[in-house]
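Entry type: protein chain
Record version: 2
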Amino acid sequence: MVRKEDICMRKTNSIFILVVSIILVTVFSGCAFMQTGSKNRTSDLLPAWHDGTAKQNILRFVKAVTDPSNPDYVPPEERIATFDNDGTLWVEKPLFVEVAFTFQRIAEMAGDHPEWKTTQPFKAVLERNFSAIKKFHGSDLIKLVLTSHTGMTETQFKIHAETFLESAQNPKLKKLNTELVYQPMLELMNYLRDNDFKVFICSGGTIEFIRAFSERVYGVSTENVIGTSVKYQFNAEQNVIDLMAELNSFNDKKVKPENIQLHIGKRPILACGNSDGDLAMLQFTDDGRGPALMLLVHHDDAEREFDYDRGTEKALDAAAKNGWVVVSMKEDFKRMFPFSDN
């Protein structure tokens, strides 16, 4: 005969086993979810990149320099990354964005300068004579920049630049210039920041122009922008900084390493550029004294962007000779822009 107490005990044991089973299933399901989630996060690193040599080089490098047990470990304070801007972070063809801004400013100012109608280089800009513009020397462009970017405070200039960027579009791609930033580069900068890198822009464009959008578009704060600069003058009476019509530094080629030393005081361990103008910055990074990663963006995708080598010949030769990573837009960029599907 089965006692009533035994029946109650069996029921109690059954309930206990059921509860324990539920708990165990929940716990192990949670563990499985956590493991799966972790695996997904790892596999989702740099999702706009094809899983090719360039991406694998980046992931291996960052893993090595952030792992204290790795002989290539680099402490966070030494993890410096520098990026060129034009052609590296956003589209530079068919005309540099800041050059387009400069031309627009010249057109806006022309009413106060009737002499420009017969004076080069202003005449060519006002007439949109691109045959003449293509023949400009560096001194012509500097003259236009100094004329259009100075004679005002830094705040006034920022307003001009922001107003331009609100509506200025790329004539071929028909999108705002601030939309034509490379999604893989945005991901790379975020990935580096997540791994305690300090990310800087080192551009031939002017500091003040890039500062007008760097934080909003790239997440790069204004103090982390290195670029071409004019001389400043403190106006004590109005408590403002005036931009003077005198070149301070043209941040191109060998001047890039010089200004990196001036502004940062440390050598980058990662540098990314796209042209011969960035060659010295890449060489400066590749000093042979520690781990370093040099990335050269190659414009070879005429369908989604542009296809050109001009102005990159020396950098491509150096990359092949020194084993730098050439990033093919066609082969390495799974997704070109933030707004695009591919």
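Comment: The domain at 53-94+181-332 is CATH 3.40.50.1000 (Rossmann fold).
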